[in-house]
């Protein structure tokens, strides 16, 4: 009887990848496995056909021979690539299929875990963040043991291959026709055991140590920025690579300035007379004081922009501005004479329409209030 096309048996196209083939095989294997077909001979033959097709199409060499020569290319009785002296054990193949689901396929070596990443919180003043700074930090961490160079074994000895998993780091547990990969209980997934542990690290391969590191903080950093120091985290297990250290920047609040992106903001008190008559103010910046010209009749809340007096961006290099908000300060602790002068000033401004000329906002406000109540009564 002629054999069916292997691609047809599994229900896949000739261009199907290994993952698609495994998925199709898993579905058919669960349906036609002898444990489920209760001795049906015809279905047992069908299952062997499915198993044979899977073995050929997941082997690159056999699949290439099959694609070129058909069944003759893989028939051991006709000089083909063959099946290596008989069909493979179903449990092994089934284990391969489910390996991706249950933590790794058969024959995969256990990998030592990379060391954990660490975080260090670095507090800085606004001036330090804007200008940049070289700082030294002390970080408690795990480093590779000097005595065993991270192997965990005493000097003169070395870790041995685990006798339970034979270095795989995993063992296969079967229940019915399921094959599930589990971490080896003997070596905890390392694939090796240490019979003579290092005296310094007691077989861990790592010891606790406080490292002193120099960190170059670039100019322009802000709260939330992170500086990554590659390989300065915890040492990995059994000589695996170390993790990274992330320096998390936090900029303390400033007494004068508030930062928003690359711009700085500050409030500048303005005297009553300077606001009315105009003049000059001394305005603080991170580079020192600068003079700011104030026009006559300046109102409180007016914002002045000092270009280029902000922060240089750590990413783009663009420089922000300093935004100065003036706040008119009402005079306090006045003498009798000063109060009389203010009353005289107030009287000089007149009443009604004359006063509106000097205090337009006040007059506009009360006009709006009058209109509001007139609308309510109408």
SSE topology:
Layout: H1 6-10, H2 18-32, H3 34-37, H4 41-57, H5 60-69, H6 90-99, E1 118-124, H7 126-131, E2 133-144, E3 160-161, E4 170-175, E5 178-183, E6 192-193, E7 206-217, E8 226-229, E9 245-251, E10 258-260, E11 263-271, H8 272-277, E12 279-285, E13 288-294, E14 303-306, E15 322-329, H9 336-348, H10 353-358, H11 360-377
Parallel strand pairs: 1-9, 11-15
Antiparallel strand pairs: 2-7, 3-6, 4-5, 8-9, 10-11, 12-13, 14-15
Radius of gyration: 40 Å
Work out the helix count.
Answer: 11
Averaged pLDDT: 82
* Biggest sheet details: 4 strands, mixed
- The helical percent reads 25-40%
Span from first to last CA? 104 Å
How do the strands of the widest beta sheet line up side by side? 10-11-15-14
Low-confidence stretches: 81-110
Derived structural class:
alpha+beta
Oligomer: single chain
Please tell me what the overall shape is.
Answer: elongated
Q: What is the chain-wise order of helices and strands? A: HHHHHHEHEEEEEEEEEEHEEEEHHH
The fraction of residues assigned to DSSP E strands is: 25-35%
Overall number of strands: 15
Task: Summarize the structure in words.
This protein is of the alpha+beta class. It has helices at 6-10, 18-32, 34-37, 41-57, 60-69, 90-99, 126-131, 272-277, 336-348, 353-358, 360-377; strands spanning 118-124, 133-144, 160-161, 170-175, 178-183, 192-193, 206-217, 226-229, 245-251, 258-260, 263-271, 279-285, 288-294, 303-306, 322-329. A hairpin with a 2-residue loop joins strand 4 (170-175) and strand 5 (178-183). The chain starts with 5 loop residues before the first helix and ends with a helix. Residues 81-110 have low confidence and may be disordered.
